[in-house]
Amino acid sequence: MNMFLGEGWQVKPAGGATGEAYIAEQGEQRLFLKRNSSPFLAVLSAEGIVPKLLWTKRLENGDVITAQRWVYGRELKAFEMKEPNVAHLLAKIHHSVELLDMFKRMGNDMLTPQRIIDDLKASMKRHECDDLLFQKGLKFLQTQQEAVNQEQYVVCHCDINHNNWMMSDAGELYLIDWDGATVADPALDLGLLLYSYVPRHEWKTWLANYGLEMSDHLLLRMHWYVVSQTISVMLSNMDRGKHAEAETWQDFLKTLLDDSF
After folding, report:
1. Which of 37, 107, 165, 240 has its CA 20 to 30 A from that of 48?
2. In terms of Cα–Cα distance, which of 213, 208, 228 is closest to 156?
3. Signal peptide location in the record (predicted)?
4. Do residues 20 and 30 make contact, with C-beta atoms less than 8 angstroms apart?
């Protein structure tokens, strides 16, 4: 990478699961570099959702390197996910016409309830999984499938963990790491965030800050997506031999399925 940065630049890995992110430094200058980042990074940058995109370069091997302005700041704490600015930014993302148009032009298929059920069935079959809890969860998803169908689909981040929210020293809030984003019901992001970080008695206020009125239909949709994601995470942990983590999610799934809808 040093070849197109010029002399005096030092490049080192930035960490992360993919190993494709780097920090470039020259004196007091610093850049965040990433190999083959999301192709809609320019739209995210233009809308102020991620730190500013400075340039994009294509290497001879076809890889694309992007450089973003380095932002000094910190990850959000878990308790800060309840704040209105988080709801406001997520609403901005979900209501972005430009972002949705970009996804559609890229040919992204919508993550519909039917597709989720089909994917879970295939995964369970691959694991030869006939556990009663899994079957109970799958039955809930199938029973409620028609009830959760709706027409509004938006760009969802799909990994709203507080570690992906960044507050700059200047007070700017960003949502980073868009590699897993897809077009889906906004209830997917909303459910994962509220169930993970916001006490139930504060949901109405949080949703009002987002711009939605809490309703039985919205609650059902959020619950449905959290159940589906929980089953998916359990299967993923089983894949990687993380049995302790799988048991934790198993307990959570039991709690979810005990809730009546």
Report:
1. 107
2. 228
3. none
4. no
Examine the domain organization and report whether 87 and 12 are in the same domain.
no
Q: Which residues are catalytic?
A: 159
List Cβ neighbours of 35 (8 Å cut-off, separation of 6 or more).
Answer: 20, 21, 22, 63, 64, 65
Residue 179: name the closest of 23, 89, 66 by CA: 66
Same domain, 122 and 40: no
At 8, which CATH number?
3.30.200
Q: pLDDT tens-digit profile of 43-55?
A: 999 999 999 999 9
Assess contact for 31 and 22: CB atoms under 8 A. no
* Confidence category of residue 27, pLDDT binned at 50, 70, 90: confident
SS3 readout for 176-238: CCCCCCEEECCHHHHHHHHHHHCCHHHHHHHHHHHCCCCCHHHHHHHHHHHHHHHHHHHHHHH
Domain assignment of residue 182, given as a range: 75-258
2 band by pLDDT with thresholds 50, 70 and 90: low
Q: How confident is the model at residue 16 (pLDDT cuts 50, 70, 90)?
A: low
* Three-state secondary structure call for residue 21: strand
Cβ count within 10 A of residue 221 = 23
Same domain for 110 and 49?
no
Per-residue pLDDT tens for 188-245?
A: 999 999 999 999 999 999 999 999 999 999 999 999 999 999 999 988 888 787 878 8
Whether residue 30 sits in one domain with residue 135: no
